[in-house]
Amino acid sequence: MRVRAGTCFGGASTSGRRTTLHGRGRNRLLRCQASFGVGGGRCNNSKASSSSSSSSASSSSASASAASASAASGRGSRNENMVRASVLRTCESLFSGAAVVEVAEEAGLQEESNVPVYVMLPLDTVWRQEEQEGVYNPVLKTPKKLNDALRKLREAGVTGVMVDVWWGMVEADTPGRYNFDAYLELLKMAALNGLKVQAVMSFHAAGGNVGDNVNIPLPDWVLQVGQDQPDIFFTDASGHVNPECLSLGCDGEPVLRGRTPVQAYRDFVEAFLTTTEGYLGWVVSEVTVGLGPAGEMRYPSYPEGDGRWRFPGIGEFQCYDAYMLADLKEKAKEVGHPEWGHGGPHDSGNY
């Protein structure tokens, strides 16, 4: 599961290494602690009142002191404390985004977790800003807020962050010309805050998909190619073209100004690795590659943005671009049923 980072640091005040929750965030945290049995007692009622939350707060303090006193009694107690510390961190990340350092210190629960936790940054962490008329460059959208967020994530015990490296941002205007400056700034910021970075090579558009709240298209020059050759995009039986990502059918075709899509993806990743070489291994801990819409290895069978699909519709086949149909026709002949090569099933329903 990906955890999105955003405006999640309200409801807390910090001073040095200590962070104190207050208001609604504290009450929700205490209820979460109670439900996991890490505070005082258990809470099986999801609609626990604020008075029971206050009671849980008092017993939580007593329980924390008891845990501190018994921490040295044996390996079993140590393991229990580590589990409790993990749950505390989980509770705070769900409800406030602030580190429960004060509670953990009092309970003696400062052992490092063996499970690395990465938090997904907002989709628009890097944004295109107009430097001069008609010239756009990728920049960090809110660098000061981002730096504050990274610091608080580190205080909360997070290992690192995950960020989308957008094809439509970096290679936006001209094939083979890359601008990773904003991502270099992010890597430096992460390093100074003691965080690692998982970089996702995002060769799809953002916007109009489930959970999207931004609009980041494919590179302009790719969309221009698509205007002349719409078959580079997935297409449904009605001829609707989806510019969210390139069709798998053209992976091996030199449709991108003389390059195949796979070659374009390879060149992009190589450029990223070359540019960020000084950060590889110690800051950049992982590089992953998106393989379809929303970065997932699937077909864009349920496009929500233009209203064609609504839950719980079954979606439609996206195999009607010229490249997919040619492949279907060839495979149908190979199995001795050329009549199968004219299109997808006629009775599969619609969106």
From TrEMBL:
Q: Which PROSITE patterns match?
A: BETA_AMYLASE_2
Specify where the region named Disordered lies, as residue ranges.
Answer: 1-24, 43-62
Specify one Pfam family. Answer: Glyco_hydro_14
Q: Name one GO molecular function term.
A: beta-amylase activity
Q: What class of enzyme is it?
A: hydrolase
What PANTHER family does the record point to? BETA-AMYLASE 1, CHLOROPLASTIC, BETA-AMYLASE 6
Q: What is this protein called?
A: Beta-amylase
Q: What is the lineage of its organism?
A: Eukaryota, Viridiplantae, Chlorophyta, Chloropicophyceae, Chloropicales
